[in-house]
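Workshop exercise sheet. Pairs work together: one partner reads the sequence aloud, the other fills in the structure field after running the prediction. Swap roles for the next sheet.
Pair: D.N. / O.F.
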Amino acid sequence: MQQTYGNRAVGQLLRAKGQATDGVAQMVRKDYSSTGAPRNGAAFNMKNDPTYGPWHFHFIKDARSNTVENFFVTLENYKGQKRHVLFDGLTQTAANRLKGDLSKEEAGEIMEWATGLLQTQLADATDVSEEEYLQQVQAYNEERQRQAEEALKIQEERRAKEREEVRQSGSELANYLLDQQIKYKEAYIRSAFKFNKEQQWMADLKPEQIEALRKLL
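Structure field:
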């Protein structure tokens, strides 16, 4: 909800400055799938500038909607240091992350240069409206919920099968482990008792549980 109101505030600000484009672009988010950016958000488009040296784009992506929250132009080694110009993914405004050893004029020139790079990068990106963004988030959440429910169902089926196999085995030890929901395997438990490490290796068990295991071995 906070994100939604933030988007609206940005749209109002753009309109007030006379910079807003028509329609949904006022609530712009960018879908970078068309730019060739990798899904894991790693650095890409490594290039070299005659003045600033090697540089690349880097971004932080919202996994729910495949849109970008923050976008970096990173100088790999400018005057002996890695430096970043951070852009907000919604407003495309820049923040100075260049460190204080640069003059105000030099920092301003780098940010202007980085802004030009970003505008070129955004030229082929697709605008995503607030409504589309929220729809993508909802679809993502619904898919995650479906996957979680499916995983839980599979887990419950596996556990039911294991319980039935244990019941049919007739093993008192296996049944005790199942009934007490003890996580250790039989072979591990036997090794612990063999080396007198049961208190150390199974510290989460109660003394009465360890004693019961001792009797069943």
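Discussion prompt: Residues 1-29, 34-43 have pLDDT under 50 and may be disordered. What would you look at next?
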